[in-house]
Write a structure and sequence with these properties.
The strands form two sheets. A five-stranded parallel beta sheet has the order 2-1-3-6-7, with helices on both faces. A two-stranded antiparallel sheet has the order 4-5. The chain has one domain: Rossmann fold (3-Layer(aba) Sandwich), CATH 3.40.50.2300. It is built from five helices and seven strands, in the order E-H-E-H-E-E-E-H-E-H-E-H. Strand 1, helix 1 and strand 2 form a beta-alpha-beta unit. About 30% of the residues are buried. It has about 130 residues and is α/β, with parallel strands linked by helices.
Length: about 130
């Protein structure tokens, strides 16, 4: 079975590395970006199956990036899981109807894996 592609966007390089290693160990193909400016270009060229997107990006709001992606016909079906250290954003994100899920920082590794797995109806081969 073909591995699922996950795009991780966070301006913290250490977090990108940790998530990449964890998800690659789970059998996912992972690409990373450390800014929100290049997300649309990356999505257009690699069409990920899932996007993990930090809310607070350097100079940008991840919620705006999410809304932008969800407004494009080609990309609106890609699940987007927002990541934030601000725990009170979970309710706001659900109200806005843009994100498909939420992970709070610092994240529990098992929870991260469970949330990512939950976005795919069938398990990938590891």
């Amino acid at each position: 079975m073909k591995s699922k592609k996950v795009l991780v966007v966070d301006d913290d390089i250490d977090i990108l590395d940790v998530i990449r290693i964890i998800l690659e160990d789970e059998g996912y193909e992972v690409s990373t970006l450390d800014n929100g400016r290049d997300v649309l270009k990356e999505v257009a060229s690699n069409m990920p199956d899932l996007i993990l997107l930090d809310v607070m990006l350097c100079g940008m709001d991840g919620r705006d990036v999410c809304k932008n992606l969800k407004s494009h016909a080609l990309y609106k079906s890609i699940p987007i899981i927002m990541i934030s250290a601000s725990h009170n954003l979970q309710g706001v994100l659900k109200e806005e109807g843009t994100a498909d899920g939420f992970i709070s920082k610092p994240f529990d590794l098992d929870n991260l894996i469970a949330v990512v797995h939950s976005q795919f109806p069938t398990r990938i081969a590891v």
